[in-house]
Amino acid sequence: MKKILLAALLTAATLTSCTMNNPLLVPSEAPHGAPAFDKIRTEHYKPAFLQAIKEGKAEVEAIANNPEAPTFANTIEALTYAGESMTKVSNIFFNLNEACTNEEMQNLAEDISPLLTEFSMSIMLNPTLFARVKAVYEDRANLSLNQEQAKLLEETYKGFVQSGANLSDEDKVVYAKVQEELSIATLQFGKNVLSATNAYTLHITDEADLAGLPQYVREMGAAEAAERGLEGWVYTLNYPSYSPFLRYSENRELRRQIWTAYNTKCVGGEFDNLENIRKILNLRMKSASLLGYPTYAAYAIEDRMAKTPENVLTFLNDLRTKSYPFAKRDVADIQKYAAKNGFKEKLMPWDFSYWSEKYRDEKYAINEELLKPYFELSNVQAAIFDLANRLYGLQFTENPDIPVYHPDVKAFDVTDENGRFMAVLYIDYFPRESKRGGAWMTAFREQGVVNGEEQRPFVSLVTNFTKPTATEPSLLTFDEVTTILHEFGHGLHGMLAEGTYPSLTGTNVARDFVELPSQIMENWAYEPEYLKTFAKHYKTGEVIPQELIDKIVASKNYLAGYACIRQLNFGLVDMDWHTLTSVEGIDPIAFEQAEVDRNPVLPSVKDVIFSPSFTHIFAGGYAAGYYSYKWAEVLEADAFSLFKEKGIFNREVATAFRDKLLSKGGTVDADILFRDFRGRDPRPEALLEKMGMK
After folding, report:
1. For residue range 633-645, what is the model confidence (pLDDT) as tens digits?
2. Any catalytic annotation for residue 487?
3. In this structure, are 428 and 526 located in the same domain?
4. Domain containing 234: what range?
C-alpha cells in the first residue's frame, strides 16, 4: 500500500505532462494501429500505467454507480470493455518484460504489480458492482442471450466469486494483500531464473575440450566468446547452446558441469528460489482457502476439462504406469549400447543425451547434424506459412513499416484468401540476455469488437533458436522445427479468432485445452508429403532424400517412453506442490526428489531439482496445470487422426477445425468444441497408439 500512496502523490499536472504524448496512450499511427515500438521508451511505462489505472477506476465506478437497473449491456458488457487502456499498456509491458527486458523494466514490474493487483481487487471486491453483476446473473434465464453473451455472463460472475466477491469485508482485505504479495513473488521468481541463466558460462580455452562438437556448435561457441570479448569458446545455459553441447561433447566432465549448472539454477546462491517456492505456495494456499477450496489445485482445475485434481492425478498416474516399462526399456537400451562401446560406468543424467544421440545415429543412421542442413530457418518459416495457406487460405507478407521492439523481430501482415486483414504476426527467433529461455506465443492485442468496430489481433511468436554464424545461416534442429510448428499453432488460434468479446477469443480457453491447437501442428513435421515441400539442403538445394524422411518417421517414437515419463514427472511434481495444505517444514529438494524417485529411470543427483527454475508453474500460468500438455496430447492425437484419414492438406477437415474449434476461442466449453469437430468424445487410447506404446 505504501507504493500506492507514493504513486498517488504525483500531481495531476505531472501526470498530464507525462501522458499527453505518451506513445502507450495516444492512438498509434503505425499500420493497423500496431504498437509504436519505435517510440516507446522505458520511462513511458509508469506514467502510462498510472493514467490507465485512473481511467479504469473511473470507468468501473461509473458502472457500479449507474442509477439505472443493471442489465447485460450496462453492467456485463460495460465491464468487459472497462480498463481498455490498462489492457493495452499491460500487454505491451509484460510481454516485453519477457522478451526484451532490462534491469529498469524488471524493477518497474515489481513496482507496478502491486498497483495492478490493487486495481483488480478494487473491481472484484467492490460490493456495489458485484451486486449488479449478481442481479444480471440471477436473471439470466429471462434475458434471451446468445451463446457468446451467456458465456460472458457466466465467466464474469464466476470471475467475481473466484476472486473473493463473496468474502467478508475482513477476508477481502486479507485476500487483496495475498494477491499483491503473490504478484511480487512470482515476478521475483522469474527474474531470478533469467539472472541465473545469464550468470553462467562454460568458458573453454583448450581446443581439445571441443572433441565431438560439430562445426556449427564450435562456431556458435566462438561467436558467443567473441561477443563477450573472450578468447576461445563460450557455452551458456540458453537451450540452443546447452543442448547440443550435452548431446555431442566427448568431455564427460564438462558435460557434468554444464548439466549440473542447468539443473541447479536458482538452488542456493544469489538467485536462490527455494524460499520463493515456499512463499508462492503458501500464498496460493491462503488464497484458495479463503475462497473455500481445500487446495490451490482444486481452485485452479475447477473450470478446466479435467474438473478435479483427482481426475488429473488418475490420468497422470495411469499414463505413468503404462509408459514406465517403456521408459525403463529405453534407458536400458542406451546403457547397453554405451557399455558395448566401452562405457563401463552407470549412465548418469549428463551422459544420457550424449549416448542416446550416438545410439539414434547408429540405429536410424540419423542425427541432428545430418538433418540441420535441410532445415534452414527461412525455408522452414516459408513452409509453415505455406501450410497455413493450404489449410486455411492465409497469406503472410512482411511489413517493414510496422515498428518492432528489437532488430531481430520481423512483422507480417496476415490476410485471408479474400484479402481480409486477419492479424499482425511478430516473430522473434533468437536468444539474447534480455529474453527468457524457451518458446511461447503471446498477443499484444486480442481479437474482438470494440466500440462497434472489429479489432484484429497482434500475435507474437518468441523462440530461442540457433543464431546464424559467420559461415552459416540459422539451421534448425528437428526439435526446433517441431517447436516453431507448435508455437505457430498457438498463433493460428489467435489469428483465426472470431468473436465479440476479447476475453473469450483466441487462446482464452481452458488451460488443458489450449495446447490442442499447438500440439496438433507438430504432426505435420513427420509427414513425408509435407517435408518434401520445403526440406532442402541450404547449400545444394537438394530436396531431403526419401531415405532421410523414412528415418525421421521411423525414429518418431525413439525414447518415447523416457520422454513421456519425464513430462509426466513435471506434471506430477506440479500437482504435488499444488495439492499441499501446508508448506511447514517442507524441503523443496527432498519433496521433489521423492516424487521423481517413485519411478526412477536415471539415477537421481543430490540437490538437483527443476522446481526452482520451473517458470511455467511458479512465474507463468501453468500452476496446477502442467498436466495440460499430456491431456491435450490425447486430444490432438485423436483430432489429427481425422486429417490422416481424409488427407493432411484436406481443406474440408481444416475448415471444420477452423470453424468448429480454432475460431471459437472460449465462447463454448472445450469438451463441446471437441465433440463438434470430432463427432464424439476423445479416445484416450489415441495417445498410446501415437507413441507406439499400445
Report:
1. 999 999 999 999 9
2. yes
3. yes
4. 200-263
